[in-house]
Amino acid sequence: MSVTIHCPKCSSGLKLPSRKLLGRKGKCPKCQHRFVLKEPEEVELELAEPESPATPQTPQVGTSAKWVPDEPAAPVFSLANDGPVPKSKPGKFPVNEPPAADSSFNFADVATAASAISTESSDAASESVTSRIRNRRKKRRTGPIAVGVGTALLAFCLLGLWWQQNSQTADDAAASKQPPQVNVQLEQETQQLAAENEDAKSISPTHGEPVTVQYMPFTPHLVFHIRPADVWSNNRSMKEFIAALGDPGFGRWLHDSILNLTKFEPTEIEELTIGINFGARTATPDVAAVVRLTAEQSEVELQRDRFAARRRPDPTVKMFQTNEFNYLLVDNKTFVVAPAALTDELTEALTFSYRPSLQLESLLKESDRQRQATLLFDVANIDTHREYIFNQDLQTLADQFVLWFGNDVQTVSWSFHLSPEHLYMETLLRHANDSSPRKVKRYISGQLEDLPQTLAAAVRFMKPPTIGYREMIGRFPAMMKATALGTRSFVGSDHVRLLTFLPRKAAPNLAAASLFTWNQSLVTDFDGPAPLASSGKKLPDKIIDRLQMPVYIDFRGTPLQEALAYIGEEIQTPFDINGDGLKQVALTQNMRQTHNLGEVPAMAALHAIVSNPDYRNAMVLSIDEAAKKIIVTSRPAAEAASLPILDTAPK
């Protein structure tokens, strides 16, 4: 049978599983006090229900019940008569006995108070033990509850995270299954531009392999590829073109430069690829060339008759050396020429080729080595080294050249091919990293449109010495206007393609005008006052006479309003287009004009426009001499306004 023993020090209860353990020593689990386990004593107590005592001013002392003996340890004497106080019954105290009249202490009250204090102490002790046991039981109950609640919350949070992750995964899977949204209009426009660019490539007069920079002993920053045997051939068109370049002039300078570099006449060279490496900003650029001859040459002929050089002792390479250049023989028709300081690099060029920049290489892939001349360069390199490429007289033009391309264009490829029928020019523009092909197209279109006005403003400062020079230079802006009108632009994947078709005889005219204007620009003071430009001819007073002035016509899909504006600039007479009148006969100002007439009177150009069979003789011209303008309208509108209709037919 179990029994509960209370610690005599802290009154904590210790439950023994059997009474057999009584008499042994035990240790309180709370205060660690060691004591002999004894049978608990039973104390008979009387519980009183006293009136609610007032709250004591000071805290009551005592934590456990105390045992009160049945009899006092010594007789108690009364202070009144010095006689002994009669004994009380065991376990009883006299209550409510009236005190003696002359006694200063009432022993009965003292005994009653002692009994009350003893009872209250016992109740406090019992309540203290009971509350502790209740608190322990409460803790034992609330502990598992708190753990359970926490576990449930944790499980709920994990469940929520799992659900959120699965939902996100499901949404991602659904989104991946759905096709991405595509801007249909932009996609169609891109495909259309790509198709137009491929069509533009197909109309090229040549279809050769791309220009290569194989065997170059350095990284080329500028590449010039030319077919000298074709350019200096006996073809009449090319002879006229070379003659227009001047002798002496640019044509002679180019001829002599090729001869000095290669030791061969241009007519003996099938292909010539010249590379320039600008190197350090203050250093002289290095020039090398890969020469492909029209006929094979023996080593002896090359060493003795051409190069006048000594053979390099190294038997692994066929190299001829001079104090100025080294010549590396690739085969009997191909050799490489480079400065003498690049001997080691030239030796390695047989097995290792330096590659150009990525931007320049992308344009090289679009080039055609069958074209008669191709020039590729990096605008940034030209800008950085222009002070050391161009002499002091050309600094202003070099700055204008670089600024004209702007910040959107990084690399340029320009090619030229003159056939017996047409002059074909192709310009490829590679955009900078922070630009795009479409942005370059918009920018260059604006630059080409403004180019004639820019040239006209520059020409005003020039003072050519002869009338022929003045006429040719004065017509140069008009020629560039015709060139701009004959140029079409296309957008490729990483470049803009500009194609220019002009009649064959435009080549020598452009060459001569460009050369004369260039030479005159070198001796012109552009900072001084602009002189009055005069060609020696007076502008006719009547418009009918101005219509006999020559104009250069090469319209290729040019809108009507632009074509008339160009003719008006040439004869210094504006055109007034009656848009409402044209609408009466289903005509517009944007009708495309395609006329390749060359240099003809302005009247002939206007006749070619208004006599178009698609217009059904519905568009007419009328001269307003008072307002000094030409009115373009429909026949019904002119007849309604009683306007005189101009007869453009040749007389």
TrEMBL record:
Instruction: Mark out the compositionally biased spans (Polar residues).
Output: 54-63
Q: Where is this region: Disordered?
A: 43-100, 116-140
Q: Which residues cross the membrane?
A: 142-163
Q: Which keywords accompany this UniProt record?
A: Membrane, Transmembrane, Transmembrane helix
Q: Does the keyword Membrane apply?
A: yes
Q: Which Gene3D superfamilies match?
A: 2.20.28.160
Q: Which domain of life is it from?
A: Bacteria
Which ranges are annotated Low complexity under compositional bias?
Answer: 116-132
Supply the name of the protein: Uncharacterized protein
Which species is the source of this protein? Fuerstiella marisgermanici
